[in-house]
Every structure is written in C-alpha cells, then in structure tokens.
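User: Here's a structure from my thesis project, written as structure tokens. My advisor, Dr. K., wants to see whether a designed sequence matches the one we expressed. Can you design one independently, without my sequence as a hint?
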C-alpha cells in the first residue's frame, strides 16, 4: 500500500493553526456511516462531512452510505446508483433541480459522473414515487444535490475548503467560497480529484485511474429580503480508465449555465415564486487512447435546455401547495469515426412539458396528508438514418400520469415518533437508452443477425409503477429508530436482455422489452447512545423481486446488507469502527438487467471492516483519517459489471473492489 505525499492538503492544514475567525461556522461530526430518514420517505445528508468508506469524489460514490443504495462498479469512478434494485433513469438525479443526462450509449457516464458532492450544501433523497415536484420524475427515488441560498445583512464571507490524500495516488482538493452584502452575493466553487490504478485484496492492479476537475461561479443580486436573482455557470472535465469494457472515457466535459429568480411574500396567497432557465451540455469521448490506440474513438453529445416555474401557495392556515410547470428539450448526437463519420450527427430529440402540483393539508396537530399529481407530455423524434433504424424520421407522443398520497401521523402511543403510509403511481417514459441505444426483441420472424436496426422506438411501452410505502421514525435522547417497508408492482417494466438466446428468439445485441414484475423490501436503521461519548449505529437493507413474465428472479437486486458502527466522540477526538456484512446472492437472472448492466453470476457473501479517527481542534476544523477494508479482503459487489480482458491486468468475473485503503482528510470552515 502506497500513500502519495501530503502536499495537496498543505494549504488547508496550514490554515488549521489560525483561530482568528468568527465562530459562526460549525463543522458537523467527523464521520457519517449511515443515513437515517429525517422525515417520512426522506433522507437528508451533509456532503461536506468526511465519510467512511473513503470520502466521495462523485455522486454515485456519495450514495454508498445510504441504506437501499447499491453502486455498480466499473472501475475507479463513475459507478451507477441502484436503489431497491431499480437503476438507470428510475433514480432521478438532479443538480440544483436540473437534470443531467450522460451521453454514452452504454452508460459509461452516468449522470452522477458529472456531480462533485462536496461543492453542494445538502443532498436529499426521496424514496419511491412520493413526490412529483421535480423534472425527470423518478419512480424508485429522487436525489437532489442542492446549493442553499446564502444571504448577508452586512459585508461577509464564508469558505469551506478541504484536501484529501489516500492510497493508490488518490488526492482531492475542494473549495466552496461565498462573499456578499445585503444587496449582492457571489459564490465560487472548485474541485479536483485524481487517483492511479487501485489494487484489489489479492494485490492485482485494476485498470481504474481517473482525473476530474470542476469549476463554477454564481453572481447575484438581492435588492431586498423578498427578491433574489442569480446567474451561474460551471465547467467540469476529466478522464477515466474502465475495467469492464474495451474503451475508456477520455473526455467528460460538462458545461452549464443557469439563470434563477425568486420573489417572496407576493401576496397572502402567493408566498413564493421561483423561475429557473438552464442549459447543460455534455461532450463525452470513448477512446482506446489510454491503451495505446488513439485512433479508435467515438464522441457523443447530450444537450438539455430547460425552463422551470414553481409557486408556493398559502391556500389557508392548514393548507399549503406547490404548483409548477417544467419544460425541457434534450438532443443527443454522436459520430462513428471508424466508418468515416467524424462530424457529430443527432440521433434523437426529446421534448417534455410537465404540469405538477403537491398539496399538504395539516388535518390536526398530529396528522398530515400530502398528495400530488404530475402530468408529462412527451414528444420524441427518431433522427437516425434508415440504415440504422426502421423507425427513422418517426415521431412518438405520450402523456404520462403520476401521483401519490401519503398520511403522516404522530403516534401518541410512542413518544416522539411518527408513522406514515403512502401510495404512489409513477408512469415512466422510456429514456434515450431504452428507445434509441437498445433495440427491440428481434424474434418475430426477423433474422436475428440483422436485428440491429429493429428499433424499440414505437413498440416499447411506458413503465407503470404502483407502490405502497410504510414506515416509522422514532427519536429520543438515548436512541433513534427508523424503518421503511415497501411493495411495488411494476407493469411493463423495461428489461434489458443481453442473453444470446431465450425461448422467444435469438438476437445479436442486448435488446429492450417489457415484462411484468414486482419487488418488496425494507430499510431499517437504529442508533443507541451508550454513554455521553459512545454511540452504536446499525442499518439493514433488503429487497426481493420476481420477473413474472419470464418466471425468473428479477435482475439487479442487491443481496441483504447490514452495517454496524461504534463511535466515540467527545467533540474534540473521535474514533470509530464500521462492519459491513453482505449476504450471499443465490438468485440471479444472468444476462438480464437494466441500461446500467446485467446480472453476471451468483455471488458469495463478504464482510468488510474499517476504522476511522478524527481530531477537531475547534468548531471549524476537522482532521479525519481512515482505513477502509482493513483486512485487505478481495471481493466484488453483486451488481458490478463483468471484468474485461485488458493487457497487463488480471481479468476477473466482476470488477473487484479496492483492497486496503488508507486516507487522510483535512476540512476547514471560515467566516
């Protein structure tokens, strides 16, 4: 195990010696190992707090600590989040309430690949179809990476800065700086992350090196307490080696511009009005350049322009509502240099107009009902050539309807506790990958070796999710407990089938088709304060499902997982241990899955033990150190992709996780 020099955090470490700043900014506890529900169906997380496993460098990595989430390993970065066995666009990823879509037809760049968590102030996860407020409505979960507005009565500033070094040449640097007065504000963010190839527990190198950076700025005006206007822009790029395929990602360019306006206290009825216009462009390159063949490459682009209008209404003292409209246009394109097509050519265009409303009714002091509806009108154009698609030039229009209702109740029989039950329906339009990138089942009298142009554009049905969610949240001075259980019936689930053959036919490449399925499961969390300084936390997540159409287990469902952590924290020194236990997975639908990947094989269980410690010389500085996978276990996650054959590297069934990994992180908050 090799550690790089500590120079990347030298600047941050040097600032730790200074105590001349005000005491307004307070850093939270040093390490977070699991995330409980804070309100019914909702989890809130602080992305600026050091975490174990190794602090995150992208959006998927950050979600590892949330019970119910599994991350598909491809290499050192750019994993793909899967919640309760549902992956792809069923997990709605938002950055400041803007959809980010990757470009790669084989999901080399999931949306979370373009998100650097620590530059955001809050991450919110809503489980299941229990909100309709956001674009790209997620049937499994909605994940919001949020920047919280800052206001200043007098000239002031605040800065969050951190640096990290770790095994395998890992180093990160992050800064989030704000300055403002009562009439203006400015924000500047920057992040840089780099790692060399990591080694698994057997000491085998994994083709996994990466380098990423991001930079952003926002300028705004606050003429008075009720008005706020903001213009922001950002840019990020990098490269990443992949252990699961024959190409690497040599460009991950995202450019973003957004304009926001907010008006508050407009009238007794209208409490707040928000408008946002945004443009996100992705330019991604897949290449063999990192493997010695720079002439083999492909480029893809994804451009999204969006407009959003939301109003907060005070209908009466007990009734609040949010009403809004979303509009977006997304264009995807690419080239085929190997066939002489170097210029970028568009292959599809998605347009979406949505209306939504969510109402909260406080029935009495202890009982509340929340309900919502969202209608999405879609227009999709197939812009491919007739050679590559038998639906070339065709248009598809769909109206999808989604809604939910949830009852929340303070429980008199159990002090400081809240129960909830919610029923939700989500109708999901097939995404770019399901309509354009993959083909339909080529069995019905079609030559399977010529099936690549058999488009699923018109035949793929919308996916309908009907889910019930129930749960309990209990908090006290000594202990806390939270539980959520669900049952999910999915009609016309969009399944990606990569098998070379099955009873209805043979096809050459992975295809998309509709099946009926169901899932059910639970997430449980509990914490107990043993003493004033020692606390025990635990969590458990479980999901099971069936592909009813094929009478097979539903693919891409992670096995039973439990976590147990013990921590000591006297507000100056902290020490902790984390044990993660994952059960064997005896059910698999090999070759079936979603746009992220398919089941590879059954898997054995494993246990991973990690340690951490922290030092807080004052309320604004934290030094954290950790060792993940202390016993250098060789293991792979069940939903990992298959290992590819790469010269100079050992091929494995799945992409193995990192072996023993040490890290050191320094964080400071100034104001």
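Assistant: Designed independently from the structure alone:
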């Amino acid at each position: 195990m090799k550690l790089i020099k500590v120079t990347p955090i030298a600047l941050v470490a040097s600032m730790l010696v200074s105590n001349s700043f005000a005491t307004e900014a307070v850093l939270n506890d040093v390490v977070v190992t699991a995330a409980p529900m804070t309100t019914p169906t909702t989890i809130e997380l602080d992305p600026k707090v050091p975490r174990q496993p190794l602090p995150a460098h992208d959006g998927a990595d950050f979600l590892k600590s949330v019970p119910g989430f599994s991350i598909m390993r491809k290499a050192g970065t750019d994993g793909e989040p899967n919640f309760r066995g549902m992956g792809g666009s069923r997990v709605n990823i938002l950055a400041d309430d803007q959809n980010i879509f990757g470009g790669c037809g084989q999901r080399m760049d999931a949306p979370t690949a373009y998100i650097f968590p620590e530059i955001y102030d809050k991450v919110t996860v809503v489980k299941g179809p229990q909100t309709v407020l956001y674009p790209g409505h997620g049937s499994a979960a909605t994940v919001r990476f949020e920047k919280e507005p800052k206001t200043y009565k007098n000239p002031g500033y605040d800065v969050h800065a951190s640096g990290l070094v770790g095994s395998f040449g890992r180093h990160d640097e992050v800064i989030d700086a704000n300055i403002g007065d009562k009439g203006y504000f400015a924000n500047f963010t920057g992040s840089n992350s780099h790692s060399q190839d990591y080694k698994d527990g057997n000491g085998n190198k994994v083709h996994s090196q990466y380098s990423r950076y991001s930079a952003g700025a926002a300028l705004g005006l606050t003429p008075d307490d009720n008005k706020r206007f903001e213009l922001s822009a950002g840019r990020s790029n990098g490269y990443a080696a992949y252990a699961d395929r024959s190409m690497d990602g040599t460009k991950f360019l995202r450019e973003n511009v957004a304009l926001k306006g907010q008006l508050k206290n407009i009238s007794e009825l209208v409490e707040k009005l928000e408008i946002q216009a945004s443009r996100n462009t992705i330019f991604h390159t897949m290449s063999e350049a990192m493997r010695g063949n720079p002439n083999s490459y492909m480029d893809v682009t994804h451009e999204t322009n969006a407009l959003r209008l939301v109003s907060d209404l005070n209908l009466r003292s007990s009734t609040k509502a949010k009403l809004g409209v979303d509009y977006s246009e997304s264009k995807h394109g690419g080239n085929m240099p190997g066939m002489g097509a170097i210029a970028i050519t568009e292959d599809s265009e998605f347009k979406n107009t949505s209306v939504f409303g969510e109402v909260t009714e406080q029935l009495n002091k202890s009982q509340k009902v929340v309900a919502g509806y969202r209608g999405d009108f879609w227009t999709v154009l197939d812009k491919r050539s007739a050679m590559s698609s038998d639906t070339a030039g065709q248009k598809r229009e769909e109206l999808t309807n989604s809604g939910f209702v949830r009852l929340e109740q303070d429980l008199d029989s159990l002090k400081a506790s809240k129960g909830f039950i919610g029923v939700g329906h989500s109708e999901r339009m097939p995404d770019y990958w399901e309509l354009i990138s993959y083909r339909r089942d080529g069995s019905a009298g079609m030559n399977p070796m010529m099936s690549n142009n058999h488009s699923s554009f018109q035949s793929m049905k919308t996916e309908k999710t009907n889910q019930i969610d129930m749960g309990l949240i209990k908090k006290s001075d000594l202990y806390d407990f939270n539980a959520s259980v669900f049952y999910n019936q999915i009609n016309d689930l969009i399944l990606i089938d990569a098998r070379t053959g099955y009873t209805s036919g043979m096809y050459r490449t992975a295809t998309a088709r509709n099946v009926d399925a169901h899932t059910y499961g639970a997430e449980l969390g509990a914490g107990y304060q043993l003493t004033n300084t020692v606390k025990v936390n635990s969590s458990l997540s479980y999901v099971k499902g069936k592909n009813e159409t094929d009478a097979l287990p539903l693919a891409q469902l992670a096995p039973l997982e439990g976590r147990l952590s013990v921590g000591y924290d006297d507000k100056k020194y902290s020490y902790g241990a984390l044990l993660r236990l994952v059960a064997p997975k005896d059910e698999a639908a090999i070759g079936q899955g979603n746009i992220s990947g398919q089941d590879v094989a059954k898997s054995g269980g494993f246990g991973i033990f990690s340690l951490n410690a922290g030092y807080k010389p004052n309320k604004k500085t934290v030094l954290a150190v950790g060792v993940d996978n202390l016993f250098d276990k060789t293991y792979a996650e069940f939903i990992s992709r298959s290992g590819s054959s790469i010269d100079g590297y050992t091929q494995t069934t799945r992409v193995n996780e990192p072996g023993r990994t040490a890290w050191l992180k320094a964080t400071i908050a100034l104001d």
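When you compare it with your expressed construct, this may help: The first strand starts at residue 42 and ends at 45.
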